[in-house]
Specification:
Number of strands: 0
Structural class: mainly alpha
Helix content: 40-55%
Shape: globular
Strand content: under 5%
Number of helices: 6
Distance between the termini: 50 Å
Largest sheet: none
Length: about 130
């Protein structure tokens, strides 16, 4: 038995494959993506003994510490980057006196903030 495949059928199959490949979203890993960003831009202040930690008790030394938040409340709301205070502060959407990073430090690059936003959107997993 011979099966004939039309060019149209091959084109539809190829288009479907390409579309599904484009729609796959990379999973953002806390260990591979988020933690290194925090270590580069935040950890100096947000660990015991650092100015940010002393002011808010917000530690970024581990996943559990990050998810604990500050003495004022949570900083990460899984699946809600808009409501996550850490993102609000990093994007400069808060009062300039509390935007992060503080003072004359360079802002966190937009790409790094986008990675953190995507991680939060995906549920802020310890992965």
């Amino acid at each position: 038995m011979t099966i004939k495949t039309s060019n149209w059928g091959i084109a539809v199959l190829l288009f479907s494959f390409m579309l599904s490949a484009c729609q796959r979203e990379e999973t953002v890993s806390f260990a591979r993506h988020v933690q290194p960003t925090l270590e580069r831009h935040c950890i100096d202040c947000h660990q015991p003994g650092g100015a940010g930690y002393e002011a808010s008790e917000f530690s970024m030394t581990s996943y559990d510490a990050l998810m604990k938040g500050t003495k004022y409340g949570p900083m990460i709301i899984p699946e809600d980057p808009e409501g996550s205070n850490m993102v609000v502060l990093m994007e400069g959407r808060a009062d300039p006196s509390i935007s992060m990073p503080h003072g004359n430090l360079d802002p966190v690059p937009r790409e790094d903030i986008q990675t953190i936003r995507k991680w939060i959107e995906q549920g802020a997993e310890n992965n």
